[in-house]
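INFO  loader      accepted 1 record
INFO  loader      residues=265
INFO  predictor   begin
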Amino acid sequence: MADDHHPIELRGVSKRFGDLVVLDDVSLHFPRGQTTAVIGPSGTGKSVLLKHVVGLLRPDAGEVRVFGTDMATAREAEIYAVRKRIGMLFQDGALFDSMSVGENIAFPLVQHRKDLDARRRRERVEEVLEMVELPGRYDYATSALSGGQRKRVGLARAIVHQPELVLFDEPNSGLDPMTSDAIDALIHHLKEVLGVTFLVISHDIVGTINVADRIAMLYQGKVVASGTTDEVTRSDHPVVRRFLSRNLVLPEPGAPGVASLPRIG
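INFO  predictor   done
INFO  writer      dumping tokens
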């Protein structure tokens, strides 16, 4: 099948809004079981790409294949079926403050797992709360959570229905450096434990290097780098090197050594 190795494939995707070209003939693939980060300056098309993956936008040209379904031409029922296989951590958490922590996390189960009764839903929520290091918080008020706790609850909700693909929209946005490092470590750990495919949209270069197996960089709507994290940090493309060198000490292209940055233990 087309999605055996690449749950997401973009083929010649272009998108414009009026005179503004946001994506320009973008072709990328995202390997199964790996974490791929899409990076680039603000306004370069990262979030627009993500919206194409979940079917919120359709391209002007090209194909957006998710689990083999072309989201560019799929019917609403087909798009809904694909979305049931995806979890998403939104940039601002997108939690319902009127619901408890547990009710927020259980929301996808209520929507998509009609086979689970209330007891089994709670058991599953308690399980993922343990995974995101918030045990015993089921009945806590969501409005009382810190920024880092909201991210963890959002992450728990993204994985509670056992998706095959998890999307992260700026997972470190609004967090202090220590909390950001903790979220990066948690994402890294969960990818190893769950063995599913992660797609991360991020402007946090150090965090991205720490969690990503692969990196794709967009610049002015085009792909200017794509490959393993090591390959991209060794790129000789001037835009890539200028963007990454703001936060990293990069090796010279082709030279031994690695980029200087913190590593997750």
